Amino acid sequence: MAQLVIVSNRVAIPEKNTKPRAGGLEVAVNGALKHKSGIWFGWSGKVTTRTKIATQKVVHDKITYITLDLSKEDHQEYYNGFANRVLWPILHYRVDLAEFSRRDLSGYLRVNDHFARELHDVLGPEDLVWVHDYHLMPLAKALRERGHKNRIGFFLHIPCPPPEMLTALPHHERLIPSLCEYDLVGFQTGDDAFNFSRYLTRECGLHSHDFNFTVAERTIRVDVFPVGIETAAFAHLAHRSERLPFVRHVLESLAGRALIIGVDRLDYSKGIRHRLLAFERFLQTQPDWRGKVTYLQIAPKSRTEIPEYVDLERGIGAAAGRINGAYGEADWTPIRYVNRAYSRATLAGLYRGARAGLVTPLRDGMNLVAKEYVAAQNPDDPGVLVLSRFAGAARECEAALLVNPYDPDSVAAAIGQALSMPLTERRERHEATFRVLVHNDIQYWADRFLSALQREPTTLSRLEQMPLVGTQ
Ligand code: ADP
Ligand code: F6P
Q1: Is the pLDDT of residue 216 over 90?
Q2: N or C: which end of the chain has fewer CB within 10 A?
Q3: Helix, coil or strand: residue 360
Q4: Is a pLDDT exceeding 90 seen at residue 462?
């Protein structure tokens, strides 16, 4: 029987006593698979020194999790190297941070080939294959070379920059066109899909008919699938989590001060340092708020073996310390900065207790935190989302306070506006966004993608049957 096979670098393996981990892909795919069956294939998250690496299999509910460890060399070259020091910065418009080496590129291709080799034993001829994110761009090519004719889809969770920037990727002509081996290539926003299409036209001489590109005998469909969250379930969780002892303890410790929350993996794309400086600007320009507000920044460490992340951690710690030193009082610390991951219930409760959510990435594919913050609010007395216009989520969250994260004055003004916004306006803004997020939830994302992947491109109209809400 044909089955769904999901492939991604990270896999949310259902193990007992696992610590919470930050990362949008795991949260999204996990949510999407709640009511589905199939296989989820990827990296175990472990690095091994063994030379013979076997896959591990765990069956839980209706999902079979198949994972493999990476050798030290593979982990260094594929994950720390090409994926996270070349593709990640360039796709986030940070060409200045890219550190390319041929060795890392060959490690990246080798691991993709390794994934294809292992999948070869798993895939049936009718299986539907859904590959996720920038770690696995050449996977379809590696599978096709082994003779697989399955329908294979790819979804990019992170941004796709314009061709002027994509071409700064060394050997882009080897990598980006290999996405044409997929039947469907999905992006978070219209801009991302448009940028990719422009690359295919400019660099590969391909022309599209209504975002269908014909290459040799095959047709590749390019489309937009903004990733969602489990909106209704997360709203319920937040409601219940208000009563968690830890959440109550944190909120009581504020001694009546308003809470502002930021929750991000410690990543330069998230704009945490810019945000801290904007908060400082807020304290400078709106001094009446001093002593009346606490900004909690939760930022679990991420990719800690990569030098740019080590520098970032140092810089953010120093900025938070400096601002606290300059503005704090013996009985008030303006910024609480913690490098911890929390359970989903704790996060949901903290979001709900915050009068403002600061989500100000410099560039982000979607940003699920923005959506979670909105879903967690009490509809009768909601907090206000301050959101970067450079997050994919800004398309669906138009009723948030949209800001330019590079402009500290505009972010500082938005913080003040959020904290003093009248209840009626808060309710209106929250209701407008929540409605969109309930419609475009995670099930909807997965169903739209999979139904588009299953259909032949010729029968695929512009997905009128499953319209998106709030993305125009
Ligand atoms: P990214 O995928 O780049 O990390 P997203 O905002 O899209 O960014 O997704 C991050 C996911 O990780 C969200 O679901 C969020 O709740 C979760 N997360 C972020 N920070 C933490 C944390 N400190 N503890 C637990 N989960 C976190
Ligand atoms: O969404 C972007 C992403 O790279 C995901 O693929 C991943 O789940 C998340 O960020 C966390 O990064 P990492 O897997 O490198 O810890």
Answers
A1: no
A2: N
A3: coil
A4: no
